[in-house]
Amino acid sequence: MKNLLKWLLIIGGVLLVIIIAAVMIIPQFVDVQKYKPVIEQKVTEETGRSFTLGDEIDISVFPWVGVKLTDLHFGSGKGYKQTDMISVKNFEVRLKVMPLLSKKIEVKTFVLDSPQIYLEKLKNGKANWQGIGKAQKGKAHKEEKKETSAEGRALPIEALLVGNFSITNGRLTYVDHKTGVKKQVSDLNLNLNDISLENPIGIAFNAKIDGKPLSLKGTVGPIGKNPGRGTIALDFVLKALGELEIKLKGSLIDPVVSQTIDLEFDLLPFSPRKLLSAIDIDFPVKTTDPKALDRVSFKAHIKGNPGSISLSSGVVELDDSKLKFSASAKQFSSPDLKFDINLDKIDLDRYLPESPAKDSSPEKTKSSAQSKKKTNYEPLRKLVLDGKIKAGEIKAGGATVEDVDIHILAKNGIITIDPLDLNLYQGSLASRLKLNVQKNNPKTKITIDAKGIQAGPLMKDVLEKELIEGTLKADIELAMKGEKPVMIKKTLTGRGELLFTDGAVIGIDLANMVRNVKTRLGAGEKLEKKPRTDFAALKIPFTAKNGLVNTSGSSLMSPLIRVLVTGKANLVKEMLDFRVEPKFVATLKGQGDSKQRSGLMVPVLITGSFASPKIRPDLEGMIKGNLTKEITDLTKEAGTKEEQKEKVEDVKKQIKSLLPGLLN
After folding, report:
1. What is the value of pTM for the model shown?
2. Smallest Cα–Cα separation from 617: which of 509, 529, 536, 527?
3. Where do runs of H (alpha helix) occur along 150-246?
4. Phi and psi based region of residue 185 (left: phi greater than 0; alpha: psi -120 to 50; beta: remaining)
5. Which of 10, 282, 371, 543 is 20 to 30 Å from 385 by CA-CA measure?
6. Which residues face 201 on adjacent strands?
7. Same domain, yes or no: 632 and 552
């Protein structure tokens, strides 16, 4: 038995020596050039494209199994401007033989020098990368199925070691003759260092995109002996176009099984305007402020898997605004979202587009046709949302609001905003909103409680007009149905009250209207003032039902004027019908004066459309009213009865001359 074992070892050793000698000697006597035409022909037959090799071919077997090829050319096919789709100046790979016996792969060299890839698309849409090789759908399906069933299996190797892995001087060109687009990636270089299963792999990549620099540096791994399982560390820095820099650090956890990521993402400050300018693309947004969107940064901790994702410790900087946030999402088919946003300040008016030109008739027609399309509320019905927004200061539409506090909830097609609180113009506003989209016509309910708001500055900033001054208090409850303005106006229902104190109505001087009439009656002196009606209190209670807004107790109290307003506004027809009854007080006492005083009633009618309201004195109503009593009051201090009688007759004569045809 011992002799048998001895002879087996001797025979095995001799065979091993013979094999080693053979793999060292055979390449020296075999003419590999003889097989070059055969290789070229086989590749051409299998791919349907021309394929050629250079004359320099080097093959080694021991101690390194290797091949070195030069001047490779793979054709584009017929009809293309560029003959070669792929060309390579030099290709070399060398693999050590002996470690293979112990399931160890040791690669000395993998070098791809000057690869050139030319992707071309013709005007008819056909591309040179299409139609390569024979159709193998069945085989591809089987391989895909086989690959899927092998998920998670360990590699059939014990170790991996690669000395030099590099791609140098590469170039990728894309040309689309139909659109005229041409893009090129040039000076492409890739180097991988310390490639193994146990250690992090160093990656250094750089290239130029249409002449603009792009680089990626960092490490990945170790990947372990069972790639796709366990934790794979990542640490990269990406730089692009001389403007963009992104840092990515974290790990991939069980990328084949759970596909979980845990990453720190940091986009350093950059200018979107300069970035797009660097690649010769016009900035897509014409902002009101041409300096807006000139500085942006983003950073966040990202964790996620195919079923959910979360962002924490998020910070976004936009120009001079800073936003901190956290967010999460899960059940993407029926989204369940949460977010918490805290913004210091922002001027939204800077980012609005420039005022567009007036729409032409065709565009209006198109817009009208689009407006007939029904809104699909199904995504909102599926949405589950819990979001909080806080902001220190927001400017929008010319108005500035502070200390914004918003909480948004959505579930089963019901969206609630409660609270919606903010401070503005020395006052506060608390609002609640409920939107129900369970049916195709959404229902909306809104309540507003405002206190201490300075109406004058608010009107100037928002409307750029002076309409009213004073401190505003508002209590409003409204409900409406529909999504289009017409239906909303038809269904608007609710109640409310607006109270302005210590202010003025700008553009209307009721006191002067009365004063002018009184001057003609000999009871005062004609004055000229800026059109305004000062008041101590302007109270506007209203009710609304199906688009008809009524007010029966609106009143204005002023040192000179007491005003009662009654009437209605039809929101559907956009028509006004109000009667303003001011009473001129015969004395100029302070605004706190509440004593009943005599004066002259001069009613004012406000009628017409919203766009062109008509404001005129109701002279006929004034005459048919209690004018005689007012005239008597004006002449009480004339003296004796005969003097008073003479005064009355004199006043009547002046009225007849002032209002001819209206008095009998």
Report:
1. 0.72
2. 509
3. none
4. beta
5. 371
6. 220
7. no
